[in-house]
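C-alpha cells as discussed.
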C-alpha cells in the first residue's frame, strides 16, 4: 500500500493539523485520516500525519508500505540519514518507527507538494474545521464513499484447509477438522492479525472455523465467541460431493441452483436463506459492537454475503468472487447505512 501524509501549522507554531491517505497499488483510495492538533509546529504535524497514515495501513492489513511525503525532514529522519535532534520530535519519531517495524517492508520517498495534494487538502480541511471555518466537510461527509459516522469494521477470515476443501468438495455443515496445512495457514493468519487492533474474535460454530479462530485467540490473548449466524451453507445431500458429482446426481436442480438463489440443494439451504441469516447476524453484531473492529472467522458463503452487503451487489457475486482458504477481507458498515469494502481475498500472510 501507499501512504501519503502531510501536516501544516499556520504560524509555526500555530493552529495545526494533519492529513493522511492510504492507497492501493492500483491508485484506489482505501482510507483517509485528518485531525486538528491545536497549537504546535509544522514538523510535529508532519510526524502526526505519518503516524496516522501508518496506523491506517496497519488496520487495513498492509505488509509492505511505501510512504510519500513532502517533508524532507521527516523522510530523511525516518530513513535514518538524519538524526532527530528536536526533543519534541523524538517521541513522535519513536512511535512512527515502532509502527514501521510492524510491517515487512517500509520505504520513504520525498515528493513535491504538488504531488502530495490529497494529504495537503485533508490537513488544511482539519485546520479549517478546527478554526470553525465553513468548508465542504461541514455539510458533506469527509470520506470519498459518502459515508458518515464511525463505522463498525469487520475483518473477515476464512478458515484454513480441510480434507474436503483440499479436494474441492461441497463442505457445509459437516464438521471436518483442519489438515496440517490448514493449521499452518491458521497460524500464519494469526501472526498477521496479531499486528492489528480488534476488540473481539467471533467464530462460526463449526470446528474448522473454531480451530482457525483459536489460533488467532492464542496469538492475541483473546477469547473466542461463537455465533451461529456465521455457519456455512447447508448443502444437504450434496455435502462431500464435487461440483461435477452434484451436477450428475441432480442435473436439473443443480442447474437451477446455479442461477436462482432461492433454490436449495436437496434437504439443504438456499443462498437467499443464508443471506438473510448472515444479514441478521451482521445487524446484531453491528448494533452490539457499534464503532468497533471485529474479527469474524467463517466460511466462503457467509463471507461473500457480508462483502455482497458491503458492495450492495446481487447474488451473482457468490459465483464470481473467489476467496482462498485463510484469506482476509475487510468491510465497514456505517451508522448512516453506507458501507465500504476495504480488502478482498488477501493472502499475503501465506506467502
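Sequence:
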Amino acid at each position: 500500500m501507499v501512504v501519503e501524509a502531510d501536516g501544516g501549522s499556520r504560524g509555526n507554531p500555530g493552529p495545526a493539523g494533519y492529513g493522511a491517505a492510504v492507497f492501493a497499488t492500483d491508485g484506489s483510495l482505501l482510507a483517509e485520516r485528518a485531525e486538528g492538533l491545536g497549537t504546535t509546529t509544522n514538523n510535529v504535524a508532519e510526524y502526526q500525519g505519518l503516524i496516522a497514515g501508518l496506523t491506517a495501513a496497519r488496520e487495513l492489513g498492509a505488509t509492505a508500505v511505501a510512504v510519500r511525503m513532502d517533508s524532507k525532514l521527516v523522510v530523511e529522519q525516518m530513513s535514518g540519514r538524519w538524526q532527530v535532534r528536536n526533543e519534541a520530535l523524538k517521541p513522535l519519531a519513536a512511535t512512527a518507527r515502532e509502527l514501521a517495524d510492524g510491517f515487512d517492508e517500509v520505504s520513504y520517498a520525498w515528493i513535491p507538494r504538488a504531488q502530495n495534494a490529497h494529504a495537503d487538502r485533508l490537513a488544511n480541511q482539519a485546520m479549517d474545521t478546527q478554526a470553525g471555518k465553513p468548508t465542504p466537510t461541514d455539510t458533506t461527509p469527509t470520506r470519498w464513499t459518502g459515508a458518515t459516522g464511525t463505522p463498525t469494521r469487520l475483518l473477515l477470515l476464512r478458515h484454513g484447509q480441510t480434507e474436503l476443501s483440499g479436494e474441492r468438495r461441497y463442505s457445509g455443515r459437516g464438521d471436518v477438522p483442519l489438515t496440517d496445512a490448514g493449521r499452518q495457514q491458521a497460524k500464519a493468519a494469526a501472526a498477521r492479525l496479531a499486528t492489528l487492533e480488534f476488540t473481539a474474535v467471533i467464530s462460526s460454530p463449526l470446528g474448522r472455523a473454531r480451530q482457525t479462530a483459536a489460533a488467532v485467540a492464542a496469538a492475541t490473548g483473546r477469547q473466542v465467541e461463537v455465533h451461529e449466524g456465521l455457519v456455512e451453507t447447508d448443502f444437504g445431500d450434496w455435502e462431500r460431493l464435487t461440483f461435477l458429482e452434484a451436477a450428475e446426481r441432480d442435473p436439473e436442480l443443480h442447474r437451477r441452483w446455479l442461477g436462482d438463489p432461492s433454490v436449495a440443494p436437496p434437504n439443504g439451504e438456499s443462498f437467499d436463506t443464508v443471506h438473510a441469516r448472515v444479514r441478521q447476524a451482521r445487524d446484531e453484531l453491528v448494533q452490539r459492537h457499534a464503532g468497533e473492529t471485529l474479527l469474524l472467522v467463517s466460511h466462503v458463503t457467509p463471507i461473500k454475503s457480508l462483502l455482497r452487503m458491503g458492495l450492495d451487489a446481487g447474488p451473482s457475486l457468490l459465483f464470481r468472487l473467489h476467496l482462498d482458504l485463510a484469506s482476509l477481507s475487510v468491510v465497514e458498515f456505517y451508522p448512516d447505512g453506507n458501507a465500504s469494502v476495504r480488502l478482498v481475498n488477501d493472502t499475503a500472510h501465506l506467502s
